[in-house]
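forwarding from the other thread:

> can someone predict this with adenosine-5'-diphosphate?

sure thing
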Amino acid sequence: MHIILFGPPGVGKGTQAKILSERFHIPHISTGDMLREEIRLETDLGKKAKVLMDAGNLVPDDIMIGMIRGVLTSQRCVNGIILDGFPRTVEQATALEGMMKELHITVKRVLSLEVTEEHIMERLLKRSETEHRADDTAETILKRIAIYKKSTAPVKDYFISRGMLSAINGEGPVAEVSQRMLDALQ
Ligand code: ADP
């Protein structure tokens, strides 16, 4: 089962992805986590990504599309994935659709987690106190929200137009949000 989690930074995609991953026994693929691993290993990609990510910018589409191609064709992902953080641009969405077609994969659902903008800011600032991510400073958060609105929000319309998207209210206790997602997958 292939599920795409969609939503702005700080909406709780990572938390919900882990729960769905355990429930359905399919890997949680977070492009943000994959990039942070590249940074930790100090690969060429990691070095390039770090500069962009720390400033709140997106990593170029060609790099991200190549990364996801590798994921989709990997053995551990044959039974499905919970995809978190991709696609983030319409170009990535189009490429993903092409790859899925080529690999005969059908996306079960795109789950769009939705909360108010005030909530997002609040959650990200709280996360910055616990996780100390380099891109969770107030200035970078605002930049990431702006980039989300400009480059990523159109991906939602893309999936709506294909009838693939379910909007999920992301407010309230974690377990309640999970239940809403499971209901949408019924
Ligand atoms: P969040 O959802 O909180 O923004 P992520 O861990 O998903 O955090 O992503 C962190 C950063 O990694 C993004 O701000 C961006 O720089 C980079 N990134 C992750 N996924 C993508 C993607 N699909 N395309 C471009 N950049 C990406």
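Residues 138-161 form the longest helix (24 residues). thats all i got for now
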